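User: Fold both of these, please.

Assistant: Here is the first one.
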Amino acid sequence: MGDDVKGRRGYRAPRRAEQAAGTRRAVLDAARALFLAQGYSATTVAQIAERAGVNVDTLYASVGRKPVLLREVVETAISGTDRAVPAEERDYVRAVRAAPTARAGIALYAAAVAEMGPRTAPVFSALRDAAARDPQCARLRTEITQRRAANMRLFAADLRATGELRPDLTDDEVADIVWSTGSAEYYVLLVQERGWTTERFGEHLADLWSRMLLAPGA
């Protein structure tokens, strides 16, 4: 009988973990939808819980309070998974860093930015709007912005190591060019407002960065 009890417990543990993960996904999906539709300030935790089909206590237990919800919505949009993933652990970053040439690394990163655009641009745009009115949103936006800038400097250094970058550009200038043109704002202008496809946007970034950043003949 003892073995039977242990077996049932072993069966229930993965099932509980799966249910918890499903609840977390439902809460984050609901928070994302409401933050984008009506803004962070106008969205209540009760509304998120109702949309997710859970009670407020379950929402708090599965993710956390409203500022944590916002952070998780941003982080999961960036990672494309149900959790935050550090930049160095993302598949596309590893591929970019392993690229044999600067041009190949640029093409890989441009494709990744375009692929992320549909999920990150709306969230970043909503965060920007919320930051104008809410101090917590402003702090989160500043943190994410600074983190992106630091990652772009690492990207610039990797490109520099290939010996293919223009010598008249500093790494900071390279990073700023990639940071600005790879932003949610630039994506929104071309894809959402001018009707470009994400594929065309990615090809444009690869061409733009190659022309602007690489030395002649690279």
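And the second sequence with its predicted structure:
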Amino acid sequence: MSRTFVGMPPFPTAAAHALRDTQLRRNLAHATGTIRDKRAGVVAEVDDWEQLRVDGAAIKDHVLSRLDHYLVELEESLTRAGATVHWARDAAEANAIVATIAHAHDADEVVKVKSMATQEIGLNEALAEEGIAAWETDLAELIVQLGDDLPSHILVPAIHRNRAEIREIFAARMGDSGRAAPPDLSDAPADLAAAARLHLREKFLRAKVAVSGANFAVADSGTLVVVESEGNGRMCLTLPEVLISVVGIEKIVPTYDDLQVFLQLLPRSSTGERMNPYTSMWTGVTPGDGPQEVHVVLLDNGRSRALADEVGRQALRCIRCSACLNVCPVYERTGGHAYGSVYPGPIGAILNPLLKGTGVDAQTDSLPYASTLCGACFEACPVRIDIPEVLVHLRSKVVDGHRGDRRPKAEALAMKAASWTLSDSRRLDRALRTSGVARAALGRSRDRVSQTVPLPGAAAWTRARDLPLPAREPFRSWWRKQSGSES
């Protein structure tokens, strides 16, 4: 059984561990910096980039406002084109559907196109329990799978690995699940890619069943779209007899005209390319060409919950480009594993609580705080998701969810004390006078409590920053003296 994110600690604990890994930080800084630079170059070439962002957001919002209509239209179009449509309320239903189809064809293995939706539902692990091996064919996903690792980035799941580490994984593990790596394998990218190509080719040629996701689903034609850079996805989408596509219900665009907006936004925002090397589109079944049995699993798995949140529903605009990860100072220093989900970074910090709900577990509730609220993610997002706004909104929901706790947190007690003090002018006046005594106790000659002197009750704060001391004289006392009202 491969590793999963189940049981991951809250973000602060996981992040503290990641920050101590200097190799991880070097790998992330190099990779995210390279992607940022490429993206900036190709975005600068587009004169109407900001208008494209506005258009992309508007199309997504329109679909979300009429999602019931477009889902029915998509189902009708898919059925008319010869595909079989399945509806899955949650991960368990989706996994069961895929397993049932595979068993119906006596398949003990499937080849997979890189798919966030199938990672989200834990499809590989569910199929393994059914005796079905799921082989990842995307190069980065293959690295993660062979290394018994976890993905750490939406676009580049193995971004936390360098070439030397990848060579070691290929040399040690490829032979366990198929063709072994060449004995003289080097860490040159071309050699690593060639080894992966040979390893995967035998799987492509023998697989009866393939599983994919979809970047977009065109409602009026039933066309599904996958964009990629390597061509492995194209092999999965054309060679096997049976194709199963697991598609989030938010992936719909109404028409081909709408699709062209996103085919300009996505490659520039994700890989820093003007267009993806491979853009695959398929519409149901075409006799004698490609898979002769096509299934589409329309997945909810919390999306209806997110849609019901008036502030948070904008997260469903997400086209999984990962631009927000590549500009986030928190992600660059902690990596994706610290977020405890297949959706890391700023978008994961809002998408996971929206899909699962707040108050479910401490790990999910910690994610809205995994941000400095600097706003870089919003500026980079090709569909203008205001991630900082949603983060603040979700923080309030987390706090509200703990108001009835028998043992309130120190922060809640501090806020109650502040509310009690500030709600009465006499209490506030006494508190201000008392602050002068506190200043004297901490040192009259200094203006701040140094990081080297932890303040009782606020040690976690003062370990990382200086704390300004109270004023020598409260404003109210000063005003009374100036106005002559103090006897």
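The chain has a mean pLDDT of 91.
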